[in-house]
Amino acid sequence: MQPTDQAGPTIAEIVQKGTSGAIILPLNPSVDAVAAATSLYLGLTKMGKNIALVCESNAKSDLIASDKIQPELTTSGDNLVISFPYTEGAIDKVDYNIQGTTFNLIITPRTGQPKLNPDKVKYTYAGGIIDFIITIDAPNLNTLGRSFSENKNQFQGKSIINIDRHLVNDFYGTVNLINKTSSSTSELAIRFLRELEAEIDRDMATNLYAGLTGATNNFTSYSVNADTFEAAATLLKCGALKKQIIRKPVPLNPQPQPQQMREQSFQSPRKQPMPPRNQNPQHPQPIRQPASTAVGEQMKPIDLIEQEPEISDDDKNSQDWLKPKIFRGTGLL
Questions:
Q1: C-alpha–C-alpha distance, residues 153 and 215, integer Å
Q2: 60 and 185 housed in the same domain
Q3: 16 near 169, Cβ under 8 Å?
Q4: Closest to 63 in 3D by CA, of 196, 212, 169
Q5: 134 — alpha (psi -120 to 50), left (phi > 0) or beta?
Q6: Could you tell me which of 109, 173, 174 has the C-alpha nearest to residue 144?
Q7: 262: alpha, beta or left, given left = phi > 0 and alpha = psi -120 to 50?
Q8: What is the domain extent for residue 135?
Q9: What dihedral angle (degrees, nearest 10) is formed by the CA atoms of 212, 215, 218, 222?
Q10: Is 18 among the domain residues?
């Protein structure tokens, strides 16, 4: 951890000395970065500070106070700003007049263009002086995009509090709250609020817990350590609400969907199963003859055998006597 009590002002001294500041996010910030920024915005606003929450990218989020993120680096001041939707060439001229104690701003649309809808007109204050700047998850100032490139004069001479956990950081801040081994930026935001002795309410704790779980993939990241669980315990004690993630159950034996059943009904008829190898019609297996049948002798149908006359034992013996006998030295063949 980069020490915050280094030579120079501390976080508490910078914030307590100033009355207005800006929290700036980099381009395409993570959920963790938005959670840290919105939580610091809520905490500093509760302390009575005039804070602008800035990000050039459209950081859509359901975190509390994420709707306060604005694309331009402006802070509340004495200048009244009148804003409304504008299309190139839609306005012919802008004029004003004073009638007694009333100031009238006159906006004349160009011929053929619709007149201004008063329901879409917004009134804000700008021109305030920024006393300090807090950067979140920005390893260098260029990662802030136009928030820095078009407002470099706003950064000159300002106290910058650099909060980051990237492996490479330029340490450009007046105070650098850097921890490269931290599992989330939300943990660094907790330390920031502790140094200010600011109370972490339920909204702030809910945002930070969402950032913590998002950065660690629900505490499964390799960067999770004991400090991660201590931070989670702190946030839960402060009333953090955990957002439920509803997962659809996966059936063990999924049934075919109606669409699949319809497709199956239009499929071609099933092919007949292939015959076993021993029933291949192209190569029929030879019929094995009984062992008592001599080679070359054909099998007779059973009906012919039954029609043959029976031969008695005497006839068989008499027929045997008529056959010639061949003798060898070892016996009769």
A1: 33
A2: yes
A3: no
A4: 212
A5: beta
A6: 173
A7: alpha
A8: 11-77+126-237
A9: -120
A10: yes
* pLDDT score of 125: 67
Amino acid type, 268 = S
Domain final residue pick, 202, 221, 237: 237
Between 86 and 236, name the one with better pLDDT. 236
Of 19, 69, 62, the closest CA to residue 44 belongs to 19
pLDDT score of 113? 86
Choosing from 120, 136, 171, the residue where a domain stops is: 120
At a CB cut-off of 8 Å and minimum separation 6, what does 243 contact? 210
Name residue 134's beta-bridge partners. Answer: 23, 161
Same domain for 38 and 167, yes or no, is yes
78 φ, ψ to 5°? -95, -5
Give the pTM.
0.62
Q: What does the pLDDT look like over 49-78, one tens digit per residue?
A: 999 999 999 887 899 999 999 998 876 655
pLDDT tens, position by position, 198-228? 999 999 999 999 999 999 999 999 999 999 9
Instruction: Yes or no: say if 202 and 177 are a contact pair by the CB < 8 Å rule.
Output: no
What span, in angstroms and rounded, lies between the C-alpha atoms of 190 and 184? 10
Residue-averaged pLDDT of the chain:
80
